[in-house]
Amino acid sequence: MTMPATTWTAATLPVDDNVNPYVFSIALNSPWFMSKGAMLAYYGDVRFEAVTAYASMQAWVAARFSSPIYVQDWVIAEGHGRLLIGDRGYDLNSYDLDAGNLTIKAGNLLAFETGLELKQSIVPGFVTLLGTGRFIASSNGPVIFVEPPFRADPEALLGWADCPSPSVHHDAAWMAASIAGALQGAFGRASGEERQYDFTGQGTVLLQSSEIAREDPAVLRLVEAQTQLLTNSQAGSLGQRLIARAQQQ
Amino acid sequence: MARLIADKRTLRVELAGERIRAASGSMVAVEGDVEFKHSGMGGGGGMRAALKRAVAGESISLMDCAGSGRVYLAKDALDVMVVDLAGDTLTAESDHILAHTDGLRLDVMFSGLRGVTSGQGLATTTVSGHGQIALVSDGPVMALEVSPGSDLVVDPDAYVGSRGALQMSLVSGVSWKSVVGEGTGEPFSLRFIGHGLVLVQSAER
C-alpha cells in the first residue's frame, strides 16, 4: 500500500512546532492550559482535567486562570507525551511572550503554558495573557501584523500586544444618520462596517485575513453578567427587545 | 486501467473503458463519453454487506461511472488523497470515501459503540483488494504510526481511517465526558494499540 500522507511516530513528531500549517505538536512535559475540543490526537501518558477540578488540588491554578467566564471552556493537559492540536483547519501559530502582555480573541486561543496568566480583557470576547511563556492561537488565513495608529474591523481583529486597549470608532457618516435616526427610534442600523476599533500608541495589532467568527459561549455569560447593572424594568424591556429580535429571525 | 489522480481538492479520474465507483453527487465536471448510474444498494460487498450496513447505519451512497474520458470529482472542498492498495486492507470512515476503482471490495466492519456518540455509524468500512481509493479529509492527513508501547488516542471527529493490525477501544469515563469536548462534543476518544498507521485529519468536524 502506498500512502501519500506524511508518516509520523511519537519520536519523529515536531517538538513544540507545527506539523503542518493547521496542526501543532506540543511536547508535553509540564501542564498546559488547553481549550476544550482542540485535541486531535496524542501519544503517551496524557491526562485532561477540568480547570475547576484541578484548581481544587493545585492552588496556583486559580492565580493563573483568573477568568471565571472561561473556566468551563478550558482544561489542563498534564503528563508526558506528544499532543496534537487543531482548530477547524485554521492556521496555527505559536507565540512566545517574555514578561509581556498580549490580548487575543478568546475563540482563537487554543493553548498556553502555565507561566502565563489569563485575564479577561475589558473588550468583550477578548482575553489577555500576561507573563512569560508560549501560547498557540489560530487564525483564519495568515496573521497580519500592523502598527498603530490603526483602525481594525472587529471581526478581523485577532489581538494586540503592548498597546493600550482600543476605543470604538464610528464612521462619521453613519453617526450623522444614526443621530437623525435615533429621533425616530431607529437606532442601531448595522451594515457591519460602521463600527471599528481604533488603536493608538505604541505596540502591535494582529489581524486575520477573514472575518468569520466562531460563536463564543463565553460572550453570552459575559453579557448576562452585565445585565446585573440594569434595574428590573430595564431588564424587562431588554428582554422584550431580545424576544422581538429572536422572532424576526 | 482507470487512474485516480488527486489534485488538492479535486480528484481527476482517467477512464479508458473501465468503471469506477464514486460518492453520489460528487461529480463536478466530465469530459468524454462517461455514463453515470446509481449503483443500487451501493458500497459493494453484496447483499450481506448491504444488510449489515442498513443495520449498522454506516451509510454510503455510490454511483457507477463508466466509459472513456475524464471525470472530476470533489466533495465540500475537502482535501483529496489517493491510496494505492496492493492486496491489503484499509479501514476508512464511509464519510471519507470519495471514489474507488473497480477491483476493490468494500465491506462493513462493526466497531463497537463508538457510533452512538460520534454519529458516524456503528461500523466502519473496510476496503481491500488491488486498486486505488480516494479519501477526502478536512485539511492534510497525517499518518500516525502505532507500535507496541506507543499507543495513540484520537478524537473520533479527526479520525479518517487506519491500516494494519490495530485494536481500537474507547477512552471514556466521567472525567473525560465532563472535561473534553464542547457541549454536544465528544464524550469518547479512540485508543489504538497494536501495529499500524492511523490517518488523522487536521480539523475536527
From TrEMBL, chain A:
InterPro entries cross-referenced by the UniProt entry: AIM24 (IPR002838), AIM24_sf (IPR036983), Trp_RNA-bd_attenuator-like_dom (IPR016031)
Question: Which Pfam families does the UniProt entry name for this protein?
Answer: AIM24 (PF01987)
Residues in the signal sequence: none
Q: What is this protein called?
A: Uncharacterized conserved protein, AIM24 family
Species whose genome carries this gene:
Trujillonella endophytica
Lineage of origin: Bacteria, Bacillati, Actinomycetota, Actinomycetes, Geodermatophilales
From TrEMBL, chain B:
Classify the source by domain of life.
Bacteria
Which residues, if any, are the signal sequence? none
- Species name for this entry? Trujillonella endophytica
What this protein is called in its record is Uncharacterized conserved protein, AIM24 family
For this UniProt entry, which segments traverse the membrane? none
Q: Which InterPro entries match?
A: AIM24 (IPR002838), AIM24_sf (IPR036983), Trp_RNA-bd_attenuator-like_dom (IPR016031)
Taxonomy of origin reads:
Bacteria, Bacillati, Actinomycetota, Actinomycetes, Geodermatophilales
